[in-house]
Structure formats: structure tokens, C-alpha cells
Amino acid sequence: MSTFNYTHIDEAYENINSKILKTPLIVSEYFNKLTKSSVYFKLENLQWTGSFKLRGASNKINQLTEKEKKRGVVAYSSGNHAQAVSYASMLNNINAKIIMPDSAPTIKIKNTEKYGAKVILYDSYYESREKIANEIAYKEKRSLIKPFDDLDIIAGQGTAAKEIFDDLQKKNVIPDIFLCCCGGGGLVAGTSTYLKHKYPNIDCYSVEPDDFNDTKISLEKNKIISNDMRLNSICDALLAKQPGDVTFAINKKILKGGLSVSDKEVKDTIIALAEHLKIVVEPGGAVAASALFNKKINIENKKIIVMVSGGNIDPSLFSKIIKKNNATD
Amino acid sequence: MSTFNYTHIDEAYENINSKILKTPLIVSEYFNKLTKSSVYFKLENLQWTGSFKLRGASNKINQLTEKEKKRGVVAYSSGNHAQAVSYASMLNNINAKIIMPDSAPTIKIKNTEKYGAKVILYDSYYESREKIANEIAYKEKRSLIKPFDDLDIIAGQGTAAKEIFDDLQKKNVIPDIFLCCCGGGGLVAGTSTYLKHKYPNIDCYSVEPDDFNDTKISLEKNKIISNDMRLNSICDALLAKQPGDVTFAINKKILKGGLSVSDKEVKDTIIALAEHLKIVVEPGGAVAASALFNKKINIENKKIIVMVSGGNIDPSLFSKIIKKNNATD
User: What confidence tier does B328 reach under pLDDT thresholds 50, 70, 90?
Assistant: First the structure.
């Protein structure tokens, strides 16, 4: 797969479409009016396990041999990939171990365990999750299911764009802009590959938290730059240290550029999406909509696809964010 | 339209389908497993204005003559019909006055005003909204847009079932059960008319709050029975005094029976839908799902359509309900 392209995504879709939800692409008159543009929200927060990650995990696990399946899998993840790997493993009777930071949202840890995986917590300040996972993979002969830097994962995530394309075709819409959240860059790499093939004039952007804008900076400098990992953000799903080698090689060819948003902008977006789109979105899942609402690029009179990537937010945090809105209303 | 049937709903859909959102029909692996059934959630909370009411209001306003449109409209509503009439009037440059109870959720009053209607608040304990609206209609020669007891409204609401049918056809699914919220009975009358025509063996049920189960009781006694209006419920959208003459005539022919749920069950359902389906649902919009989750009828191994009718809940109440879950978690 050295020349990764849309055909790998079509193949992935053939493999996984019966194991995932075809998520809706939603138009909101309210947000169209507000932004003076035509917005198409892709609701991957409605995806089973609560995020797009099920697409990549299902595609990767689908590639394993029977022998590999018997030996089990191991993965590391802040939470959404963890749930997806655990769920896809459950469906395939595969023993799964998942390395998660002890700071991960409770809902993500609980759900990962609920689907049957053994969760191993680590201290993200002092330990390396990659090292722990690699050791387990080596010692126990388990297959490592990487969170993003793997072409089968990227192809799986890209299937969200195949569904977007199918839905836009029915409406005879040619989109101008695609805004997509970015942690390690797997989702934006896969989906942008597909969309750019179907719509050569589309401008695709990664969107990250302000202090974790490694893809944005790396795109600007044309080389991989790391984040300062002493910083923090509410967007727990987007705190990768740096772009992946594989994802960055794709993204630097395809993306028009990188955008970033503040935690405050993300919180306001979570409120707006709950109040006007009636959906529950986690911080990392709200950054693309946040870039739109805060007009990080010129969007007027454009047709814009906005990825809403996940909805796994702790009820206590969600309640607090929504309540704050009401207090200041 | 004395012999109201599915053709009126197909006609209504022709009239309004460009003015509404085709809302998604969603499957959740989580809830399928939990209920041991196959559930199809119709997400009318994602409908523009936040509820299905836009369908009926759009269809009714579409029937007005140019002269009637110039004279303006008047409506009474606890909130969702109010927003829908206000929004549809705005699109048609129609002057609208809406009579709303002073106890209506703030979000509903604010949104009704935002779309441009003049809101007139009344005290629901001492005043009759019908009387106020009829007086205004008479004095100002405005067309009265009734909330449910009108065949154009019922046909409009029924279009949600046309979309459900189209989506189920693609999946080759024949549903066994339809659960639908019920206030005055317009939505359940319209949608059940359509579904019963397409699936003669389907069992359609109205679902109401325990203390506002007038349709349930009326079906059992085969005559219209009123609620005790001194009682209250969290389901502000479902507090009609009694079934409509028109809606009940339809519902008593078509429905298998009536179900009801407690406010506590509704709150737990709002939490479950936020946590596992990632959607924001108002109390009245959650009763059908609540009847399912609390197994008010035998649902195992059945294919069940669940109407999620609206999402207009005050952020403060929503936050409180979600937070409570976390506290007891």
C-alpha cells in the first residue's frame, strides 16, 4: 500500500460496512444562517462505541489471520480507539489488552472494560504507552493495533468520507471545504484522501487544540514537530505528541493547512451543538465545528463538511459545561 | 378528507419535503443488546426547530391562500408547535402571534420569539389558551393553526413515517412494533396511519406520562376522557387536557393500545440517550424510548420503531438531570 489512495478506502468499506453504523450527514438551518454558509455535519458521535475509531479498528482486525486472532491484540489509546478495539475484539472473540492513561475520562475506561478488554492504566507523565504496548505485544505474541499510524487504520477511518460522498451525491452538492479534527492524523488523512479524489478542488484542513497544534506547525515547517507535552487541553482525544510518520506523509500532500481552536471555543461549541443540533459531543469531537463557528478561515457562501468525530464525554464534565452556559445566559 | 389515509401523508410529503430535514433512523448496538430487540430510533429531535412539529406546521401553512397569508396566523402551544409555526411563518413572510403558557421552558419561548413571532404568555391555571387564540383569530382575521386536531397537521406529522418506511425498505426490515409519544395525538395518528397501511401487522402504541394518560384511558373506555389538570409532569410537551376529536377518531381505529411512563423513568431515559446514543432529548421526546427501556410491553426479539420526537429542553434542566446520573454513578 505504498501508493495509498481512495481504492483502499473503498476496499475497507466493503470489509466493514456491515459492522458499523452508516452515520447521518445533517444540515441545520440554524447553523447555515449563523455562518452564512451551507454546512454538512457528519455525526460520527452516533457511531457505535461513540466515535469514528470503530471504522479503523474494525478494518485492522479484519486483516488479522486466524492465528493472529487467537493470540490476541494489544492497543494503546486515550479512550476512543480503546473502546473501538475492545468492541471489535469482542465481536471477533479476540482477547484484547488496552493501555490507557490513568487520566482518561471515566466513561472511556468503563466502556472499554464493558466490551471485554483488560485495561492497563499507566501514568502518562512518567511512562511511555508505546513501550508498554510493544513489550506486551512482544512477550505475549499479540498483534499491536496502532491508533493512527497504520494504513489499514487510515483506510478504515477514511470510510466516513465514502459515506459523506454517497450522501452528497444524492443532494448534487460539490463541497468547497472539509474541516476535520486531528490528533495523530489518521481520520483526516483517510477522509481527505477520499474527498480530494472525488472533489479535486476541495480544501481540506486539520483542526487541533491551540496547544496541541503539531500537525498545523508541521505542515507549516514541512517537517514533523512535537507538542510541548507539559501543556494540557480539554480535548483528551487529540493529545498525540506529534503527527505519525505515515499520517503526516499523507497529510502534507493533501491538506490545504492546519487550524487550531482554544479550549474556551471548544466549550462554547459543545454548548451550541447541544442546544441547536441536539447532540452530545466530546471536546475533541467539537474542534472542527469550533473552527467553523469561530471563522478560522473564510467560510461565507461556501459548502462545508464538518466532522463531528465523537461523543464520549464524562456526564459530569458535560453537565458542567452545559450548566455554565445557562448561568451566563 | 373524511376518509383520512396514507395518500394524504404522501401528498403532504410532496408539499413539505424541501422545507424540512429528512431525519435519520438510527440503530444502536448498545440498545439492541440491552433490550434484546432490534430498535430503530427516529431522531426528530434533530428536526429543524428541534421537533417534529415543523412537519405539521409547514403543511398547514402551505395550504393557506395568499390572502390568508397576508392576514397572518395565530397558534397556541406549550412550545414545540409554537417554534414550528413561528419558523414556518418566517419562511413565508407571515405575521404570527403565538399564545404560550408562562410556565413553558425558556428555550421554547426564546426560540419562538427568535424566529419572529409575537409571543403572548398566559396563565395556564386561570386562562384558556384556546379562548385567547380564538378571540385573536376572530378579531384580527388570522388563520388559527391548531396544534393537533386538524387533518392537515396530522398529515404533516405523518410524513415522519414516510421517511421511516423509505429507510426500512432499504434495509428490508418489516417492523413489529411502533412506539410514539402522545400529547394531543397528532403525531401518533399521522405516523400510525402511514405505518399501519405499509405494515398491516404492526402494533402501534401511544406513550404518555403516567398522570397524563388520557389517550390510554380513552382507548380503554372507547370514549374521550380528560386528565386531571391539577397534576403535573416533567413532559411539558405532552400535557394536553384530552385527546382531540379528530386525532382520537383515528387513533381508536389504528392503535393497539396506550402505554405510560413515570417522570423518573423519563429522566433515566434522557440520561441513557445522552450517554449511549449521544443525543439531547426533551422529556416529552423520551417517553417512547422510556416505554421500551422499561419494557412496558413484551419487546424481546421484536423489530421496534421508537419515535424520539424533540430535543427542546432547557440547558439548566438537562444539566441537572445528567449531573444527577453522575452523582449516583
Answer: very low
Residue A279 has its nearest CB partner, among B279, B314, B329, at B279
pLDDT score recorded for residue B163: 98
Q: Which amino acid is it at A318?
A: F
Tell whether ipTM is more than 0.90: yes
B143-144, strands of its sheet edge to edge: B118-122, B96-101, B73-76, B143-144
Residue of A nearest to B115 (CA): A30
Please give the CATH number for the structural domain made up of B6-51+151-327.
3.40.50.1100
Please state which CATH class domain A54-144 belongs to.
alpha beta
CB-based contacts of A131, cutoff 8 Å, min separation 6: none
Residue A278 carries which side chain, given as an amino acid letter?
K
How would you label A157-171 residue by residue, b for 16+ Cβ within 10 Å and e otherwise? Answer: bbbbbbbbbebbeee
pLDDT exceeds 80 at position A120: yes
Residues of chain B with Cβ-Cβ distance to A90 below 8 Å are none
Mean pLDDT (whole number) for B258-286: 98
Which of B278, B280, B323 to substitute to test the interface with A, most A CBs within 10 Å? B278
pLDDT tens track for B198-220: 999 999 999 999 999 999 999 99
Measured CA to CA in angstroms, residue B203 lies from B4, B207, B290 at distances of 19, 13, 17
How many CA atoms are closer than 13 Å to the CA of A176, on its beta-carbon side? 11
Which residues, listed in sequence order, are joined to residue A306 by a DSSP beta bridge?
A: A41, A179
Q: Are the folds of B6-51+151-327 and B54-144 the same?
A: yes
Interface of A with B in 17-76 (CB under 8 A): 21, 24, 26-30, 43, 45-46, 48, 50
For residue range B285-327, list pLDDT tens digits in order: 999 999 999 999 999 999 999 999 999 999 999 999 998 755 4
Q: Do A46 and B29 touch (CB under 8 A)?
A: no
Which letter, b or e, does each residue of B45-81 get, where b requires 16 or more Cβ atoms within 10 Å of its Cβ?
bbbbbbbbbbbbbbbbbeebeeeebebbbbbbbbbbb
- Cα angle, residue B111 at apex, residues B110 and B112 outer, rounded to 5°: 95
Domain boundaries, chain A: 6-51+151-327, 54-144
Distance in angstroms (rounded) separating the CA atoms of residues B185 and B205:
11
- pLDDT tens-digit profile of A194-237? 999 999 999 999 999 999 999 999 999 999 999 998 899 999 99
CB atoms within 10 A of CB B328: 7
